[in-house]
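Notebook entry, cofactor series.
This is the third protein in the set we're modelling with a bound small molecule. For this one the ligand is copper (II) ion. I'm keeping the input format identical across the series so the outputs can be compared line by line later. Sequence and SMILES below, as received.
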Amino acid sequence: MKRRRVRWPAAAALLLAVAAAAGCAPSAQTVTITILYSAFDPSTLTVPAGIPVTFVLVNEDPIDHEWLIGDEGFHDAHRTGTHATHGGVPTEVTVPALETARTTITFDEPGTFSYICHLPQHESYGMAGVLTVEG
Ligand SMILES: [Cu+2]
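Returned structure with ligand:
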């Protein structure tokens, strides 16, 4: 009996074709936000609800910043004090000077959230943005 061998590139191409034919929806999304001159770029974003969104936070400033995302109540709590560092909470990210940080968040429900740097005077300087989550 003769064995048929399937070469890997052919197998991979077949898998891709099957996946395309099945109309697979994207299972994740990546968004890059650049921080320069104490401003977020972009300062408005729209992402879909229900899928993981990875935020790549690129700090091009020679000073530390932070990226905190939440509703008004969340930000009110953070305005009353600053944290030296954040860790372990996907919605609270410290972005050291000239570094890149990443966080992944899944927004279960549509809504509007703000992302703000709560280091002293950064928000009043304009370091804030708005994220819309669409259903
Ligand atoms: Cu800042």
